[in-house]
Design goal:
The complex is a heterodimer. Chain A is built from 17 helices and 11 strands. Chain A is of the alpha+beta class. Chain A has 3 domains: 311 residues, Up-down Bundle (Butyryl-CoA Dehydrogenase, subunit A, domain 3); 110 residues, Butyryl-CoA Dehydrogenase, subunit A, domain 2 (Beta Barrel), CATH 2.40.110; 115 residues, Up-down Bundle (Four Helix Bundle (Hemerythrin (Met), subunit A)). Chain B is α/β, with parallel strands linked by helices. Chain B has one domain: Rossmann fold (3-Layer(aba) Sandwich). Chain B is built from 8 helices and 11 strands. In chain B, helix 2 packs antiparallel against helix 5 and helix 3 crosses helix 4. The chains are: A alpha+beta, B alpha/beta. Chains A and B meet through helix 3 of A and helix 5 of B.
Amino acid sequence: MNFFNDNPAIKFQLSHPLMKKIVTLKERNFADKDNYDYASRDFEDAIDNYEKVLEIIGGIAGDIIAPNAESVDHDGPLVENSRVIYARGTQENHEALTQAGVYGITLPRQYGGLNFPMVAYVMSGEMVSRADAGFANIWGLQDCAETISEFASEEIKAEFLPRVTQGETCSMDLTEPDAGSDLQAVQLKATFNEADGMWYLNGVKRFITNGDAQIKLVLARSEEGTSDGRGLSYFVADNKHDNTVLVRRIENKLGIKGSPTCELVFNNTPAKLVGTRRMGLIKYVMSLMNGARLGIGAQSVGLSAAAYNEALNYARDRRQFGKAIIEFPAVFELVSVIKAKLDASRSLLYETTRFVDVYKIYEAIEGERKLDPEEKAEYKEYLKLADALTPMLKMFSSEYANQNAYDSIQVHGGSGFMKDYACERHFRDARIMTIYEGTSQLQVVAAIRHVTTGNYLKMIRDYDAQPINPEFTSLRKRLQIMTNLYENAVSRVNEIKNQEYLDFQARRLVEMAGHIIMSYLLIIDASRDTEDQFRKSAEVYLNYGEVEVRRHAAFIKKFEVANVDIYKVQ
Amino acid sequence: MSFKIVVLAKQVPDTRNVGKDAMKADGTVNRAALAAIYNPEDLNALEQALRLKSKIEGATVQILTMGPARAAEIIRESMYRGADGGYLLSGREFAGSDTLATSYALACAIRKMGKVDLIVCGRQAIDGDTAQVGPQVAEKLGLPQITYAEEILDLSDNKITVKRRLERGVEVVKGSLPMVITVNGSAPECRPRHAKLTMKYKRAATATEKQEAGNDYTDFYDAHPYLNITEWGVSDIEHDIQWLGLTGSPTKVKQIENVVFTAKESKRLTGSDFEIESLMKELIANHTIG
């Protein structure tokens, strides 16, 4: 099985018109082509290279990672002598990807990377997650290398980045027992030693994914006497496994069992400062978190794809009352809605990723030369778009992964409740996705300002102006009506000028915007696609989203401010 | 030190996924209906060769394959995984070769390569399942051979130590180089394609393929000599024409039958200890296991 070749919906995203800009910028007009024998020569060559490498990853996902997923879920990792030992399958997965030379997929070639855009990386994440959502975390932690590449000194980059491409794994050590969503409360102490010019870390970190990694990015309090986010700096620690970082225990979890979640003790761990002091939380972690949220988007879409495939195959094979159950309306509706949510979240995933690509590449170029005013303006525009869509993507894709995994079990009936089918693992694995890297509730907090400032509305207007296939004109009319409902709901909430009331309605408003945006994206994708892959999903999703938008509109319309009190639980 | 390893590899129809139209009415394989793949045990052989290459400084791995123009894909596939290059032996004179004619042609090509230290190939190909070509190549070249290899354990002082997988166990043997080793399917699977090598070698081509691509690329291939795959025709090797192709092939296929397995008797077990125990006894008694 090859998870790239068997899923044309992924490859389709490589044909998006914005790819030309992304590839040309990322390749700096193909400046590397004479310096590296594997560098892309032109746009078509670059797309061909992405496809060839994604085919390698898709093959590993389908032939190695997916078949290992069940035993990895069953065996899980172990802790022995304060070290994590991966499950056998996890080791095989990691080794295959290392042998294929695909770690460091987005890193510059000078550090051994492939210099691929985020779009290709996110595609790899989606495929790996479809194979095993838990393993997608180990694959996805190469985000840390991206952060090093963006913010660290040349010395640190040269020391650490080539090691990532050779298969050393990373971890991002942020949370502590008393600092979860509120990272300002981080206590782990960083002390500078004048004698050797190194920082030393002491304290405890908790819930650290892949905490026994060789390369660790650690958020720590460098400014003694401070208690807020401005006293925190960002460090890279070379975990030499010499007992300066001990794994105290690993958590016994509901899902993603192959991904070791560690409690760590730092015991005079030598570390180097990344970037500027005091900017740890405010700048670097925020950037890392945005990347991680995109990663959870990929992980969620991959899980939805797995849940959909399981549901579809079972519904086709299973016969009851003399026919395949997929012929019953109650079942085919379930399956088609899973598909519509999958396709909608995938469209949003790659739209977001393209925006992230453009602004990140401009940021990297800015490190090489001054951007001209036009480029600067474009950078700001794409940064804003990426900022607006990232929390929306994280919330919707992870919620849909859960709903899809739930419905996939429902399609399986009693069998789905048994360990015999993968859908029960998908259901458990999905559960964390609405929680980590910021809960859905916190994504709303990040997204709501794009409701109140009108960013989402402006995006919706831009999508509305894009050319579409005439057969979707009636769908667009319905979307225009939904947009009116959204605008009315937003002005109603805005007029009241009550923060608590806004917070109370925020999720409804963000969801309304999301349904409208994803419906537009599906129509635009369906118009561009020559293989008719998305037309049905566009209609099914719009039917679904329209009801949701009307439901929220009605709720907000008749809701009095004072009624918030009814919901207050003491 | 130079150490030249040649891997004999074959492009075969994927007989593992055989449909109804796998055979033609005349009893020959319907190649159009089956995907052309890298013979699985040749991939195991390639992996052994690549492991040796990483241990011996200056070692090179070259692929030798005989087949139609499209068999160059096997050479590229090997280069994506770490091979240095390869030779495609191609031409209508080779068509219709049985194992004797094939091993003769391969042996002639290997002689042409000059000093070769080690020849590795899969135990057998999935289209014919004869396991004859490797041993016959060794005989024709007058080289020793180790068959059914599972792992190359050591190579030192021109001696190679190999673990063989036999029907009822394993055997460790030692032999002198140069020699031929045939590798068993139980050997470690071949590594995946490497991303950078795949991008680097994706344009590797034989003379025939370059001709088909047109003249625009001549300069490009001159500037990137590592992308040239050697293509040999019958005139490039020293040979006696009577031993090649159909005339050199004494094997005659009389008839091929489609064998479809059907369940003659079925038994339903509930999974009790007693049933498991009696099933195990039965399977051991009829030599299915053990």
